[in-house]
Amino acid sequence: MKKLLGLRPLWALGIYIVLDILCIGMGMGVPFFCILFGLLVGWYIVRYITTTDTEIRSIFRKTLLYASVTAAITLLGMLMIWAPFAASYLFDRGKDLANTGVPMILYEPLASFIGWLVLMIVISPFLQLLTTLFGSYLALLGWLNEGVKSSVTIP
């Protein structure tokens, strides 16, 4: 565990990128596993930060920054997957949107396709951000209850 928490930031980021790509692939372009992976990443972020920092305000700031970076990486992954697909179907009137395999959420092919793209590209990384923050705050609560309260400075 000490070796995992002692990784250099760029190594940790590289490992995260590989695991995030693996999660995207397991979901076949739907970032469901990336959202769930956010809980584990949030735990790791807090454990990583609290090895060197004990000030609560700084921990919260770094947690939000690192969680935003993870969500931005997933957003870039979703853009790389779905943007070419969207461009080919939205701007070519000859393609049949009803037979793309996208669920008919809104009962209209074009509206459902646009809704699906918004769900995949925008909402899913935001949900990953929320689960990462939730996991990190759960880990932070555990860290505060471990008896570190004496060295933690709360403003």
Description:
By secondary structure, this protein is mainly α. Helix content is 72%, strand content 0%. The chain has one domain. The chain has five helices and no strands. The chain is elongated, with a radius of gyration of 19 Å.
C-alpha end-to-end distance = 30 Å
User: Total domains, how many?
Assistant: 1
Low-pLDDT segments:
none
Total strands: the figure is 0
* Coarse structural class: mainly alpha
User: How would you state the average pLDDT, rounded?
Assistant: 88
DSSP helical segment count: 5
Task: Give a short account of the largest sheet.
Answer: none
Percent helix range: over 70%
Question: What coarse outline follows from CA principal-axis ratios?
Answer: elongated
SSE order, one letter for each helix or strand: HHHHH
